[in-house]
Amino acid sequence: MGEFELIRRYFARPSRRAALGTGDDCALLAPAPGMQLAVSSDMLVEGRHFLSTVDPARLGHKALAVNLSDLAACGAAPLAFTLALALPRADAAFLEPFSRGLLALADAHGCELVGGDTTQGPLNICITVFGEVPAGQALLRSGARAGDDIWVSGTLGDARLALEVFRGQLSVPADVFDAARARMEAPTPRVALGVALRGIATSAIDISDGLLGDLGHVLRASGVGAGIETPLAEALMAAPYQGARRLEFILAGGDDYELAFTAPPGRREAVAQAAALAGTAATRIGSVHAGSGIRLMDGDGTVLDARYASFDHFA
Ligand code: ADP
Ligand code: MG
Q1: Residues 149-297, CATH architecture
Q2: In DSSP terms, which residues pair with 130 in a beta bridge?
Q3: Bridge partners, residue 260, by sequence
Q4: What is the distance in A from the centroid of ligand 1 to the CA of 84?
Q5: Measured on CA atoms in the order 26, 32, 34, 38, is the torsion positive or negative?
Q6: Range scoring the smallest mean pLDDT among 133-137, 149-153, 297-301
Q7: What's the distance, Cα to Cα, between the start and end of the chain in Å?
Q8: Which atom of ligand 1 lies at the shortest distance from residue 23's CA?
Q9: Which residues line ligand 1 (CB under 6 A)?
Q10: Which of 4, 100, 117, 119 to mutate to test the pocket of ligand 1 (most atoms within 8 A of CB)?
């Protein structure tokens, strides 16, 4: 199977929303009047972001999910994406499930594959996603204000739990592992929640490198500090794991693809409605204050030390 046959068979589809999809030198997008284009790229590298043994359908899903998660963090609605793919060989046993997993998530979000590049090389998947958001309404990292609540969507820590099991660092019962593994290999981008939080959240970020690290980006961009109540955060893991590293996984695990966002306490009802509309849980875990850094607090306000750091590829 040659390059063009491969593209035609697995990735070229008739365009619906785009003015022009795959097949020419450029795709053409036509954002609606008054909308801004939101653009983000994420690359997945074998051995770094996924294991060679992962189910290709889940890999296809995850490659797009991590990109949709960035749109969600900005409150942007997905429009289209491009796919730059390096493959060791044209292997139908990989390409068929990979493209199926990828395009199923794309269809679920009305996000069209409009182009890309395909080359031979070590397996590497780079997606650029395009979304739209009404001008001036994108959720940014810089909008958190002292007094705001801090919220987190869904669950945290499961992906890291699964990774530790894969690495042989931890052993857990099969049901715990299965629940955690599904969250690691097939994360759910919180696109509907991001859109529903326009005009409610003062800031947002998606949690890819761990809650503390990613919340830290919001706090620095906003020039504020935060307090997290650990008993509130402690409820956030989906897998029924009660081991010693539970809180560490939740606070600093990474690969969660949930949203962390801030909103004024007067908007708690609006946040609850947005979450209900999006079919996603939202949990309040602390609040923003003047100053800098993150204080971890016990239920009674005792300050614990902030010993958790997040994942940095070059650290
Ligand atoms: P060019 O040489 O002009 O960059 P290519 O020969 O690389 O174009 O690709 C031919 C067409 O196929 C282009 O429209 C490109 O966007 C599309 N394409 C290439 N690879 C992919 C892919 N992995 N997924 C979707 N479309 C792709
Ligand atoms: Mg090309």
Answers
A1: Alpha-Beta Complex (3.90)
A2: 39, 80
A3: 152, 205
A4: 9
A5: negative
A6: 297-301
A7: 41
A8: 14
A9: 7, 11, 22-25, 83, 85, 113, 115-118
A10: 117
Domain boundaries, the chain: 3-134, 149-297
pLDDT (average), residues 1-19? 91
Name the closest-CA residue to atom 5, ligand 1.
117
Q: Report domain 3-134's class.
A: alpha beta
Q: Which amino acid is at 208?
A: S
- Please report the DSSP string for 95-155 in residue order: HHHHHHHHHHHHHHTT-EEEEEEEEESS-EEEEEEEEEEETT----GGG--TT-EEEEES-
Decide: helix, strand or coil at residue 276: helix
Q: How far apart are alpha carbons 251 and 220 in whole angstroms?
A: 18
**pLDDT tens by residue, 227-266:** 999 999 999 999 899 998 999 999 999 999 999 999 999 9
207 and 214 in contact (C-beta within 8 Å)? Answer: yes
Note the pTM of the prediction, 2 decimals.
0.94
